[in-house]
Design goal:
The protein has one helix at 58-65, and strands at residues 6-7, 27-30, 37-40, 54-55. The protein has 69 residues and is of the alpha+beta class. The radius of gyration is 11 Å and the shape is globular.
């Protein structure tokens, strides 16, 4: 995982390949303070919590990202 990195989310971030909700391009996990989510460019373990990252879903996108952009 040489290119594993945390993402800064903005209005140009692509979350799903070709707009298909079953093809995530972003993975997420709770931040250390558990008050927000951290986003990453590939699956793996959260570097600060050690927990397995989850693929972004339509639900998570709409609840935590879409209305905040």
């Amino acid at each position: 995982m040489d290119d594993f990195k945390k993402l800064s989310i903005c209005n140009t971030t692509k979350f799903f390949k070709d707009g298909n909700y079953n093809k995530p391009l972003v993975w997420y996990g709770k931040a250390v303070d558990a008050k927000k989510l951290d986003y990453f460019n590939q699956p793996g373990l959260h570097p600060e919590t050690g927990k397995t990252l989850k693929p972004i879903t339509k639900y998570i996108y709409e609840k935590y990202i879409h209305n905040k952009e």
